[in-house]
Structure formats: structure tokens, C-alpha cells
Structure prediction request, 643 residues.
Amino acid sequence: MNTKYLDLLAQKYDTEEKVVTEIINLKAILNLPKGTEHFVSDLHGEYQAFQHVLRNGSGRVKEKIRDIFSGSIYEKEIDELAALVYYPEDKLQVIKNDFNKEEALNEWYKKTIKRLIKLVSYSSSKYTRSKLRKALPSQFAYIIEELLYKTEENGNKEQYYSEIIEQVITLGQAEKLVIGLAYSTQQLVVDHLHVVGDIYDRGPEPDKIMEELINYHSVDVQWGNHDVLWIGAFAGSKVCLANILRICARYDNLDIIEDAYGINLRPLLNLAEKYYDDNPAFRPKTQADKHTSEHEIKQITKMHQAIAMIQFKLESPIIKRRPNFNMKERLLLEKIDYTSNKITLDGSTYNLKNTCFATVNPKQPDMMLEEEQQVIDKLLFSVQHSEKLARHMNFLMRKGSLYLRYNGNLLIHGCIPIDENGDMEKMEIEGKSYAGRELLDRFEKFLREAFAAPEKTDDLATDMVWYLWTGEYSSLFGKRAMTTFERYFIEDKAVHKEVKNHYYYLRENEDTCHKILTEFDLDPEHGHIINGHTPVKEIEGENPIKANGRIIVIDGGFSKAYQSTTGIAGYTLLYNSYGMQLVAHKHFNSKEEVLHDGTDVLSVKRLVDKELERKKVLETNVGEELCKEISILKDLMEYRYMK
Ligand SMILES: O=P(O)(O)OC[C@H]1O[C@](O)(COP(=O)(O)O)[C@@H](O)[C@@H]1O
Ligand SMILES: [Mn+2]
Prediction:
């Protein structure tokens, strides 16, 4: 190794003892059980349900509480303690209202702090002290450590410990300590979070999910098609931008754009008011708990049409300048007979209904009006200048990728495009043919290139982001074509169907999964593909664990819009040193319900895989990194201290 690096490293490890200590420390960590990985996907803006799953660690928190306290405290107390760990601030409010005497409240604090200390101690048993320290609230780290390392057998220090708790209460710090311990527990039960795509769209609060993820202790993201759409908009793709606005309008979520990200929609509204009217096909899907006035619904309906038409017009030049996208049949505006209001698709002619073609010039249907052009330009400017959106998109780029190989598994939102024989489908880009892993790597490179050059709006990289949203060989879309236009304007449901890639049928076979895992240089006998994107219809008996356990699909429908089809409210996956477990979540009503009734959204667990021997850090990605560090430290030892 270059001695320059070693000299630099020697500045940090400036004595022999420091190097030795670190080597011993890292070696010891390799023998600890692997940390718990938590997988979620398809959050679709459902912040409340997501944060509940995050806070309860898909049932892990309650499991730990039961392990320690079952049989020694009442079931109701178990529920209460769990609710306290999930929502400490809110639960404390409820508790404080229940006690009218300070003494009784202080007794409760004493009892509860002791229980929480036990819980933190138990939850951290497989970690080093240093890792535990990082999970503790910094202002109380010293105190908590004193309490944690007390040895029960030896009664000598009992008085000392009681005094610490007593003082914490007298000095008015009990509440803060309880809150800190609750968050430490949450952090300790899950070591690392994977978000297998689709944070954005359909639901109301994707921005809050992003904030939560930014503050999370350890996380990665595999981009979903909807996430890429938002990245594309920020990276300068006007057609991606039109799509995100259209989807927000469709789901009555324009406040995400206006209030959360501070983007002014006035120009769009003005255009919409001028050219559009009420239209049943464009009325937003209303949310039960949101009371949008009839007047607002009308405005949204108009904006929905205005932005949908801008989207359709913007698609056309991209399709024309990118023949390799193979999307000519999607030049729909040109297939319309504007006098008879009919369209001919694949040889069949259909009547168009609920049309809104006031801005279309039949002679040149994809031509944008000057006003439309200005609207989309202004919107793009605001989007690219939203500080909050910039922060969120930068985070997605930093922590995200198109796919991830992690601890022997392949994490991917959509699919690996394959043909009917299970062979990787090829796409031609700039005269070169790509398939499988190479194709995905090329896609990712384009996305990063587009993001790095937001001022370019119609280069290949930027167009490619839109292709990832809707192209036939996109690993995120996984369908032949997107029938948005048909669903708005044609009655016949047969043309609404989006034909899925063969992957979605062939992934049921173990052979296909073996082939894909091998393509990604993973062990086909032990690795798993972890997928999101397509809601598993549990209601119809579909099993999320497929191909003899080689693939697990965890889109169970966090998205409320999809819960009636799935029959549940989302799957999550846990992978700890004992193996992999799939958790099915029941519908999440509200945080208030958890706080007051103590009831949790019950999770049903299904075993995916059981390790024959407990898996250690040594066998993980992190372990691999640690081994490299050890080897470098050994080089340093030899170079510097063993001459
Ligand atoms: O449910 P909506 O809003 O009509 O959207 C349907 C569109 O969403 C998609 O299903 C993509 O979204 P998902 O990734 O959530 O499946 C498209 O295939 C389809 O055209
Ligand atoms: Mn998806």
C-alpha cells in the first residue's frame, strides 16, 4: 500500500496501542450477531402509517417488551409501555392528564424509567458499548450508562442508582429522559432500514416521510418509478414535472406542491381557468378525511386537465427524437380524428369521451401554446428553486440507487426486464446493446448525469429519466406501455390494460430467480430478490413469498388507494441474525387509537428463512468493510510500529 496513506492514517493512530485497540475492537465486532435490517416499500406518501411501522419496528419493540416483562406485568401495561416507546411525547401527555397528584406521577416516572432502562439494555445486548452510546440521547448518555451497567446481584450501589433517578425527577428532567430512552429503544431494535422504492405520489405527505428518512440513523433507498419521476422533474425534465403535477391533482394532493414545497401554482390555475371546465374524468379522487370544497374541486379539475394536456404534448417530441425508446405508437394526439372525436388504436376505432382538447391544434396537435410553454417553464423554475425539494432530492440521490446488493440479497423496486424465455431483454442505447445488470447500471448513470445538469432539459440523460418512468425496458415500470390517455378518454376497459413484463409471471419460478441472482453476482442458492411495486393481492390468495422463498414482494399496500385490492395495509420484512420474517400489517387507523386503547396494528409474521446458525457481522456487507479496515490497520502496524 502507498505509504502516503499509511502516514496519513498514522496521524489518527499515533501510538501502537491505539492501532492494537482498534484491531481488537473491529475483530470483536465481527463476531457479534448481525444487526436487524428492516425493509419497507411503496410508502406512497402515507406518512402516518409509515412512521408507525418505523416506530414499532414492525412489531419488534413489543416483542422485546414481551420477552422481558411477560408474566411479570399486566398485558395492559405492556401495551402502554409499547405506546410510550412509539409516541413518547403524546403518550406522556395522556399519562400526565391521568394523574392529578404529583407524587403519583413521580412514582410512575420511577417505575417507568427502570422499565425503559431494562428495555434499552436488552435491546442493545448484541451491540458494542460504543454503538449503544451513539443511540443514547447525548445529554443523558452518562446517566443512562451508569444505570445500564449496574449489576443487580451486587446491592451495594442500589442506593446510588435510586438517588440518580430521584434527582432526575426532582430536577424536572424525567420527561426528557423518558422521551430519550424511548427513541433509543426505537433506534436499537432496527439497525438499518431499506426503502425499496416509491416514497412519492398518491398519498398526502411524502415530504414528511423524506424528513423522517433524512433524520434516520441508517438508511438506503432503491428508487421507485414515482421517486424517479420527482427526481426527473427536479433534474429538468418538463414531462416528468407535468406528470407529478398531474398525479398530485388527480389525488387531490396539490398542497404537497404548494404548501410543502412552496411552488406557486397560480400560473397553472390561470391557464386552467381560461381553457377548461368541469369534467368528470378529471375530478380528483377525494380523500375521506380531507374536506375539499366544491369550489376547490372545480379548480383542481381544471388544473388536472391543463397539466394532463401539457404532459401529452410534451411526450411527443421526446418520442420523435428518441427512436430507440420504441414508443411511436404512443403518439396518440396524432391518431385522433378531431372532427368525429374518435381515435384508432391497433386497427380498432374508439369514441373519445370527456375530451378537453381546447388548446390542441388538429394540424399540429403536439404544439404547445405560448401560454402553456410559459406555465411549464415557470413551474420548472420554481421546482428547481425550492430549497426543501432540493434537500429531499439530494438525499434521494445520495442514499439511493436503482438496485442494491446487500448481505447477499438483491433489492429492486420494479423488475429485471426479461423475455418469455427468461432471458434478459436488450435495449439499444447510442448504438450499443445493454441487458440485465449492465442495462440497469447504464440507466443509473443517465439518471445521475441528468441530476448533475439540471439546466439541460432535452438531452438524452434527461429524456432517459422519463423512459425509466414509462419505457418498456425500464426496470422500474415493468410494463409495455402506460395507458394514462386511454383511461381518461376511452370507455372500453380493454384498452386500459397495461401489459406486464414477463418477469412478473416468470419470477414465480426458482430458475428465473437463480438466473437473476447470478446475473447480479449473488449466490443463487441463498440470496433473495426483494421487490416492491406490484401490490400483492392477499385477498385473492396471492403469496408474497414466491419461488420457494427466493423472492419476496413486499408491496402490500401502504397506499390507501390500493388497500381494497390487497386486503391488508402493507408488508414489511425483517432480517436479523436468526433469519428473515415477513410481517403483514393490518389497516392503520390513527396514532390516537394506539395512544388511547393501547391497541397496536397487529402484525402477522411468516417465516421466510431460518438461519441454521446465527449470522454474524463477519458474514455481512459491513463485516466485509471491517475486514478491509483490519487489514489496513495491520499494514499500518507493520509499517510503523513493527520495524
Ligand atoms: O392508479 P392511477 O393513479 O391511475 O395510476 C396508474 C398508473 O400508475 C402505475 O401503476 C404506476 O404506479 P405504481 O408504481 O404505483 O404501480 C402505472 O402503471 C399506471 O398507469
Ligand atoms: Mn412502483
User: Anything to note?
Assistant: The mean pLDDT is 93. DSSP finds 27 helices and 17 strands in the chain. The pocket of 1,6-di-O-phosphono-beta-D-fructofuranose (ligand 1) is lined by residues 198, 225-226, 250, 479, 482, 484, 498, 533 (CB under 6 Å). Residues 225-489 form one domain.
